[in-house]
Amino acid sequence: MNASQRRERIVNALDGSDRPISAAALAKQYHVSRQIIVGDVALLRASGHNILATPRGYILEHPDQQNVYRIACRHNAEQMQEELYAIVDEGCTVIDVIVSHPIYGQLTGQLNLSNRHDVDEFVRKSRASNSTPISALTDGIHLHTLRSPDPGAVQRVRTKLKEMGILYTNET
Questions:
Q1: Which of 66, 74, 76, 82 is the least crowded, having the fewest Cβ atoms under 10 Å away?
Q2: Burial of 6 from C-beta contacts in 10 A (0-12 / 13-18 / 19+)
Q3: Per-residue pLDDT for the chain (172 aa), expressed as one digit of tens each?
Q4: Is 83 annotated as a binding residue?
Q5: Which CATH architecture fits 3-60?
Q6: Among 3.30.1340.20, 3.40.50.300, 2.40.30.60, 3.40.390.10, what is the CATH number of 68-163?
Q7: Is 144 annotated as a binding residue?
């Protein structure tokens, strides 16, 4: 198989999967190195494929997956899991986290967390690597992009986060 055939198969594999697929798994499947897959994904992105890198692997996002909303939050690192649980418990997917850095501008971290298991894995990896949340760069202020099955779910998330003191408003 040549490189363009492999890239086509990568897109098909991502399109047919409901879970992220790691670069290592793709490399094993196509008998190439992980770095070759990383390069393939970069080329696929450059050609217009909306491939997102998550902590658990690559996913292909479809433009028809709308119902996307943004919420502003502020909390410390210890409240991260509680915040994410509040969001996924209402059926929303946390697509990313965004901060506005004074030098680099907008920084975005892809999350794609849809349930408590996803949240637990993300938090576990974060703690295991002694990583600091990206929101620490902005005194805990950050945005989340959410995909929701319905606007009512997002409103319930906003209400819950406000009760928890995490929803960022001009009063907080």
A1: 66
A2: middle
A3: 898 899 999 999 998 887 889 999 999 999 999 999 999 998 898 887 888 887 788 988 765 555 888 899 999 889 999 999 999 999 999 999 999 887 888 888 989 999 999 999 999 999 999 888 888 888 888 999 898 878 889 999 999 999 999 998 755 4
A4: yes
A5: Orthogonal Bundle (1.10)
A6: 3.30.1340.20
A7: yes
